[in-house]
Structures are given as structure tokens and as C-alpha cells.
Amino acid sequence: MAFACGAHMVAGLAVGAGIGYVLDRWLGTSPWLFVVFFFLGAAAGILNTYRTATGMGMALGYRPAEQGNEEGRPGATPAAGAEETKSQRGGNRGGQSA
Amino acid sequence: MANPLDQFVIKTIVPITVGDVDASFTNSSLFMVIAVAAVTVFLTRTVRDRQLVPGRWQSIAELMYQFVGNMVRDNVGSSGKPYFPFIFSLFMFILMGNLLGMIPYSFTFTSHIAVTLGMALMVFIGTTVVAFAKHGVKFFGFFLPHGTPWYIAPVLVPIEVLSYFTRPVSLSLRLFANLTAGHTLLKVFAGFIFAMGLAGVVPLAASVALTGLEFLLAILQAYVFAVLSCIYLHDALHMH
Amino acid sequence: MPQFDPAVWSPQLVWLAITFVVMYLLMSRVALPRIGHILEERETRIARNLEKAESLKKQADEAVAAYEQRMADARARAQEALRQARDDAAEDAARRHAELSERLSERISAGEARIAEAEREAIASIRDIAIDVAAGAAQKLLGGRVDRKGVTAATDAALGEAG
Q1: Which of A37, B210, C111, C122 lies at 20 to 30 Å from C94 by C-alpha?
Q2: What is the pLDDT of residue C7?
Q3: Domain count, chain B
Q4: What is the mean pLDDT of residues A85-92?
Q5: Assembly ipTM
Q6: Which residues contact C39 (CB under 8 A, 6 or more apart)?
Q7: Is the residue at B1 inside a domain?
């Protein structure tokens, strides 16, 4: 799992830095967008890592399940109970808005 | 001692150029073809007899079918049925690539970022297209979690968009990093065995243990890739 | 790292696309339908066998129920016959017992009559003898004529007192 979190962080930083770099080259705003997107990328990486760690499994769910959550996806690990996942998602949502 | 990264070098077997694109048949391509052939031969030969009570090989083929089938059903739901062949192909392709890489002197195409990123982009673009086709403009609601206060949205939306685009990168990076690190480590330890003379039993034991771990990793990483693809597909179909 | 050499990316991506498309076609057209078909066939086969077993079990249950019904009937009939026989026997015995006791009581009453007759005869003869003895004794004692009528009355009185 440590590797998974690392992958999230590295990917977030890489994507953020890459987009920032490209936009800087294009708009000639070096190095500001690079810095901004670097931090946004880091935030995205942390968000993904956090979501992975708080029982959304390896998923990058974007929205907590609202009603009854049709079928499937009881969590990243098929064994995880649907109830458990729901409460965790609720908690996750609170964490995001805070 | 040989460079432990030599095993990742691409060697052109048949140079091919289509227009400006280099499409040479390399050792990587060779092992992709072998993987496809091996999976196809395995899955068709073992079930050739269509035994009612399956033999050992037939049960393995059936087990794989049911394993991926359950994975798709549990993570995507019944609406994921049409995508089952895709997920199955993805899983078996990566699995066979990883396992073929465990054969000495072979080439591990899943240890190349170009290949893993290619597969991840395939999943990423595919799921995004599915999401757009299914939800249209509502797709952008993806990036604004319900109940977000308006003053946080300007910060949160870029982060969410970025985290969405991070998906294929982390997906491919995970497979690539695991396979590359594992194979490099194995090679390094193997190099130590002879370099250290009698004390080489220590790295020998380490590489035996590492080989077992690598087999586990080969299966696990294929599974992780397939499961994550299923989850992204679920998100695309059900939008959350 | 050889992986980060952009020169090797394009051939790999081209061949990835080719092999993966071939893989997908082979899986979705050939391999998966075959395995799926086998699994499905087994499932229907098992379901059918289960169904068959179910119906056979039902038949067996029915047969057992019928057998038990027949057994119960037979047992009831046997019980009935037994009871009938016992009643008959009891009735017969009672009848014979009654006959016997009737005959016995007839014989008893006849015997009693005979005894009474004998007693009366005995008493009568005792009276005559007693009269004679009394008359004789009185004659011997008194030495004269004894009134026969008086002796008879006295004897009767004495017998009545005794008897």
C-alpha cells in the first residue's frame, strides 16, 4: 500500500509540474504557473492518498455516495461492506469541505 | 558486474517505419506477441475437451474467467458486463507480461513506462468517453463534490481536475515502478552472488526470497491494475 | 534508464496497440465465449440434475406415504378382527357360563327337594317309632292299656319342642 500512496504523490506532483511547465512555456509566465500547479498537483496527490487511506480503497471517488448507491463497488476491496464504505465516504466528504 | 538496467534495453529485431513513425519489431514487441499467443493458447487448449467435471488446467482457465467476472461484477456492477472482455484482456495481458518477465533472459514489457502509460491512457480515455456518452455535460459535476461551499470551489475544482488527470499517471507509474524496481533489485542481488564469493549465499537467499515476492507482485500488480480500471469504469457509469 | 528514452516509445506504443487489439478480439470472440459456454452448460446441467433429484425425492416420498397408509389400514383391520374375535369368545363364554350355572342350580334345587323329602320321611318315621317306643315304654311302666291317641299327641309335642 505504501507503494500505492507513493504512486499517488509522485503522479500528482508530476502531472502538476508538467502542466505548469507547459502552461508557463506557452504563456511566458515562468515560473509562476509552474509553482502554482506544482502545489495543486501536490494537493491532488495528497487528496488521492487520503482517499486511498480512508477506505475508499484504491478508488478516486469524486463524490460520496448519496442515495443507496445503485449496485456494485462496495469499496475497493470486494470484501468491504457497503455500509462501512458509505460511512467512510460521509466522513471523507466532511473532511473535504472543512 | 553487468548493469542491472541492461535488462530493460529495447533491441530492434526487425526495423519497420510507417511514414514518420518508428514501428520496429523489438524484443518488447516479441514478448507482447508471445503473451497474447500464450494466453490465447492456454485459454483455448485447456477447455478444448469441454469436460463437465473440469481437469486441473481447465479449472484454472475457468477460475480466471470467474475471478475477473467477479471483479467486474463487484466493482462495476451488472452494467459493467459489456466491458468484461476488455478488463479480462487487460488483466491477462499484464499478468502474462509480468509472468513472462520472470523467466530468465526474457524481457518484461510491463516494466516500460511507455507500455504501462499506454494501457493506462487507454483506460483513462475509454472511461472518460463512456462517462461523456452516458452523462453528457453532467460529467463536469464530477469535479465539484456535493455540498462544497462556494468559496472553496475555486480551489477544490482545480485540485479535483488535476487529481482526475493524475489517474492514468499513478496507474501506470505503479505498475512500471513495481516491476522495474523488483527486476532491478533481483538483478543487483544476483550480481552480488558471484561477486561476494562464499559470502554470496546471503544475496542468494535474498534473491530466492525476492523471486517469490516478485511472483506475488506480478499477480498483485495485474490485479491492482484491473481493479482500478474497474473502479474508474464504475465512476464513469455511475458518476461518483 | 532505458525506459525514459523517447526513441523507444513509439515502437512500443504501436505494438502495444496491435497486440492488445488482437488480444481483445481473441478474448472476446474466441476464448471467453468458449469458457462462458462451458460454465453455463455446467450450470444448467447441475440445475437440471437438481430438479430431477427433487422430483425423484418427491416420488419416493409419495411411495413412502402410500406404503405407510397401507400399513396403517392393515393394522387397523387386524385390530378390528382381533377385537371381533375377542368379543365373540367372551360372548360364547358368558353364554356357556350361564347355561352351566342354570343346570347346576336345577340340579341343586332337585337335590334340595330330595333332601327335604328324605328329611320329612325321616321325621315321619322317627315319629312313628317314637310313638311306638313311647307307647311300649308307657305300657311297660304303667302295665295297662295306654291311650294311643294321648301318646301320639305327647310325642308330637315333644318332637315339636325338639325339632
Answers
A1: C111
A2: 86
A3: 1
A4: 38
A5: 0.90
A6: B62, B65, B66
A7: no
